[in-house]
Fold this protein.
Amino acid sequence: MKVEVLKEDDRYMEIVLDDLTLASLLAKYLNADDRVEVASFRHDHPLEEKVHLFFRVKEGKPKEVLKEAAKKALSDVKELKDVLLSSLS
């Protein structure tokens, strides 16, 4: 997986990912954070791998907010995995 930071300042960050699902997941978790003003992603063409994820924060540093969103998403995915494995056993 590739992640490239395109733009970053004190309130805004734009990164490029090569995974549409991950961009959508991160945008959802970012939008659930009260410190985030707005988060979205753009996928220009179905055959294009690059997905732009961009967000603006009301407070905090964008990079830290993104790290926390990724940690929360990972935690929820691990919980889902545990529930599925125990339910299907």
About this structure: The two ends are 31 Å apart (CA to CA). The first helix runs from residue 20 to 31. The mean pLDDT is 96. The helical segments are 20-31, 62-88.
